[in-house]
Structure formats: structure tokens, C-alpha cells
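Predict the 3D structure for this chain.
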Amino acid sequence: MNSKYYEFTGSDQTLLRRMRATRDLPQHGVLKGDIGGFVQGRSNLSGGAWVKRNATVAYGAKAEGFALIDSHAKLSGNARVSGYAHVYGNARIYDNADVKGNAKIGGEMRVYGDARVSGNAHLTGDALILGSAVVTGAAELSEFAQIGGQAYVTTPAEALEYAYVSVPPDFIAYLRYIEEKTFGNLKVLCGYMNNVHKIVSEDTSPRCVAALLNPAIEEFGIAHLIPNGWEENVATIERRPRIGMMLEVHGELGYGPARRLDYGAYLNLLSHYISDDPRRHPRFVNRT
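Done. Predicted structure below.
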């Protein structure tokens, strides 16, 4: 069988050349002569992979197997998409990201770093998959989210844990209460495994913790979020409220002083920003 199943047309973009099929590719509904998307060179495409419409594959990126890159999706860097994976919409796959199996990635998704997406994962929306995160199995995500660090996501429920949702009102009220009782002596530490984060009040007396901060956990109805209460000057949030944040990117921990927080905001303290809308460009605060 002739391995060259496409040729280049004269319709080029900078560094990129548009494809035309030289034989049928029934798995993609492509007929001989059909115009495809853009690649930089033949090394970008192999097997029975196809690039449709205005999608692009460039630099060291590779589409292999029966992968389909469609719409305005872009592969770049050393990214690899293989198997029966389908990348569409305005999705971007780059760096050393690897997408394979029957994974589907669309919308405004960004997959980069050393992230891996496989199995029957279906990811859309405005999410980011980064770091060394692995998203596989039947994971589904269609909201604003960021999954990073060493996260390992296999189910829709696990993926949803990373979705952006406004901070619960009771948790907001508790943070305000802590700020008042500690005179603003409050930090929120993020970036621990399994999306754990911590509230730290370094100079608060044990008496204040015992008399005010600990009892208020029950009073504000958030014992399910802080099941072990305060241990010395630290409250560990094991079942975190649905606050959007990145997970352990490059092992760094970020923090933001409570007096600087907009309590109705979306939080991404590990990236050192606080924004009232996760789609907006971040407003940077207080780098560590």
C-alpha cells in the first residue's frame, strides 16, 4: 500500500502547507482529492491520521494511527496524538503532551506540559490539563477547570473536582470570620496532592484557636470541609470547597493574604492570581 496518502496544495500558511488526500480514508470520511488542514511537513502525520478544515500540526508534533485533528485545533511542540483520538474545536495540544486511545478533546481545551490523556476521556470547555497530570478511563469534563501536578483522573466525578465553581457562601463567611478574629493574620496554602489546601494563621494564640476558630467550623456548617479542625495554627481542608485551582504545578506552593482576597472570586492561588472570572487573564498577586 502506498504510504503517501496525501499531497500538498498551493494554499500555504507561514511554515505550513495544506494537504490533499491522494486516496480514500474511510475511517475519517475522507475521499481521494479532499482538501485537508495544514501541516509543516510529512513528519507531522503518519499511519491513517488526518487533519481537517483549518486544523494545524506543526513543529515536532505528530498525529499518528487513526487520530483526527479537526476544526481549528492546533498541535505543536513535541505533542503526540495517536490511536483513535479526536482533537477538535479550538483545542491546543503542545509541549510534550500525549493524547491517545479514544480520547476526545474539544472546545477551548489546553493540554500541555507532560500531561497524558487516554482511554475514553472526553474533555471540552475551557479546561487546562498540564504538569504531569493523567486523565484517562471514562473521565469527562465540560467546564472551566485546571488539572495539573501529579493528578490522576479516571472518572467524571474525579474530573469534576477540578471544575471552577464559585466559593460556597458558608466557606466565604468562615474565611471572613477568621480574618476578623486574627486581624488579617491568614494565609491559604494550595498545591498539595489530591487538591488538599490549608488555612494557616501563624501568630494566632492557641486560646484563640480553641475558643473561636475551632468552634466556628461547626457553627458555619463546614465540618465536612475541615473534618479534623484546627491542629495548632493550621486547618487542613481535605474535602475542599469547589474552588478552581491548579494542583501542585512544579511542586510549588502559592499563597495569598486573606485581606487581599475577593471572597466571591475564583481562586488560583498556586498560580498566584485571583480573578472574578476564570476566563479572564489573571490578576497577579503576591508571588512566593
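Confidence is low (pLDDT under 50) at residues 241-288.
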